[in-house]
Amino acid sequence: MLVIRLQTPNDTEPAWAVLSNKPADWQHGSWEKLLPAARGQDIVLLIPSREVLLTQTSVNTRNQRQLQQAVPFALEDSIADDLDHQHIVWQTRADSTQVDVAIIRRDRLRVWVNALQAHQLRANSVLPDLFALPWEADSLTLWQQGETIWIRTGELSGYASSPAALPLLLDSLTSGKTEALPLRLYSDQTETWEADARFALLTETQAEQLLPSSLQPALKLNLLNGLQDENRANFREHWQRWRLAASLAAITALLAVGIYGVESYRLQQQLDAVDAQNVVLFSQLFPSVSDVDPRSLKNRLASELVRMKGQNNASGTSSSPLPQLAAVAAAMQTAGGLTVEDIRAQTGTLTVNLQAPNQQAIETLRDTLETALGNPVELQSSRTADSVKATLTLGGKS
């Protein structure tokens, strides 16, 4: 078990001790020196006791669910701050109705937990640092060094005091005592305490050691107890608040994905139909070519036209419609939205039936062909509900 003691959340020189079943010496240094000792160890974080209120209350139940409601209610009058901001842990006693309680502001507890996480460490337990003091039944343990004063009064109880408040605290602890109270003392002011007849001093010399019997019993009051349950409760509360909005957002997203999928499927079906139509037309024009891929149809058409034009020029044939066909293919590459329905070739004449979105596209195609061929192109067209059907007749010799 690695015990880390911090004075502030951003403490640059922590103290630590590797505790087993025998006393461990406190070490002091940098985080770089501490981190190798953390490998494979459960980590106990000791935070300043001034951050934690240790108290007791009486609750006549041992049922944990009832305790969760009864303990905060029993302490409500003794806590000045809003109970909703407090994190409360408790431990029942086997022989009485007394309950030992530790209280810390929830936001401060998370600050201390995050202080370790900043160094890639996770605390298994968080305790006030006065539990580093040893303790025996029917006695007190007091540490006093300058302005720092801790008093451990029991296995799970104690105080962090200021020098001004210490006399009143000692009066309350010794009130009604007829015999001197054993006091285990860690102090650089022993002369003052020796003169106080209320105490029988047990002076300690091993101030820089941590005893297993000091810390292990206090782990029952681990400040991390219940913190995860609070986080889950907060999550459920926020989820209840935003559940309707989140559900509507999820439904909207699913509808959008569904509509997109249906529309994509419909467009793909149309594209597949156009590809099939183009492949059939290509096969009619070039029956000797097989295994045509629709994705490369445009390039294949251009290469076939170039090949056939070259063959035609080599043979000196001037009556072939291939020059007109090549001109049609080149012109259609520059025009958009045109669909060829069929092509018929007779001696010296090429007839192309096609479909266009508007009359202007047909006129543009005709002008392009006349410029390319140097011959007039006959045009006949008719309009349907959403397109224009046209027949182009290319005559003359090339």
Automatic annotation (TrEMBL):
Coiled coil: none annotated. GO terms for biological process: protein secretion by the type II secretion system. It is found in: Cell inner membrane. Residues 2-211 form the GspL cytoplasmic actin-ATPase-like domain. Pfam families: GspL_C (PF12693), T2SSL (PF05134). InterPro entries: ATPase_NBD, GspL_cyto_dom, GspL_pp_dom, T2SS_protein-GspL. Keywords: Cell inner membrane, Cell membrane, Membrane, Protein transport, Transmembrane, Transmembrane helix, Transport. GO terms for cellular component: Gram-negative-bacterium-type cell wall; plasma membrane; type II protein secretion system complex. It is a single-pass membrane protein. Residues 237-395 form the GspL periplasmic domain. Transmembrane segments: none annotated. Belongs to the GSP L family. Inner membrane component of the type II secretion system required for the energy-dependent secretion of extracellular factors such as proteases and toxins from the periplasm. This is Type II secretion system protein L. It comes from Thiothrix subterranea. The lineage of its organism: Bacteria, Pseudomonadati, Pseudomonadota, Gammaproteobacteria, Thiotrichales.
